[in-house]
Amino acid sequence: MNLTLIFDLDGTLIDSAPDLHAASNRMLAREDRPSLSLETVRSFIGNGIPTLVDRVMAASDLDKGERDRLIAEFVTDYNARATELTRPYPGVVDALRKFRDLGLRLAICTNKPVGPTETILDDLGLAEFFSAIVGGDSFPERKPDPRGVLSLAQELGGSQALYIGDSEVDAETALRAKLPFFLFTEGYRKTPAEDLQHARSFDDFNVLPRLVEEFAPVSAEEA
Question: Where is the domain boundary, 32, 58, 80?
Answer without folding.
Answer: 80
